[in-house]
Amino acid sequence: MKRKRHNPEQGIKKLPDANAMFASGKTIGQVRQAFEVGEQTCHRRRNRYGGMKVAEAKRLKVLEDENRRPKKVVAKASYFAP
């Protein structure tokens, strides 16, 4: 079966529906089958993007990218330092 890749925005849009399914008594297996994602992906999205809106998630991604750049520079500098 071909794997589908969902970007974070798509995952966040599905979270309210998933939470409603959990509230109605559905199991994690039923929810993940409905959204065609793995069980670990369900848990990861709920933990990471729990109450966020799409705009907040985009901002989080931008901030993570901004933090990644200085960390790479420091890592390279410390690697090549005598």
Characterise this structure.
By secondary structure, this protein is mainly α. The chain is about 75% helix and about 0% strand. The chain has helices at about 10-25, 30-35, 40-50, 55-80. The longest helix is centred in the last third of the chain and has 27 residues, at about 55-80. It is elongated. The mean pLDDT is about 85.
Q: State the separation between the terminal residues, measured CA to CA.
A: 50 Å
What's the shape? elongated
Structural class: mainly alpha
Give the C-alpha Rg: 17 Å
Number of helical elements:
4
State the low-pLDDT regions, or none.
Answer: none
Helical residue percent band: over 70%
Concise summary:
This protein is an all-alpha fold. It has helices at 8-23, 28-35, 39-49, 54-80. The protein is elongated, with a radius of gyration of 17 Å.
Descriptive terms for the model:
82 residues
Secondary structure elements and their pairing?
Layout: H1 8-23, H2 28-35, H3 39-49, H4 54-80
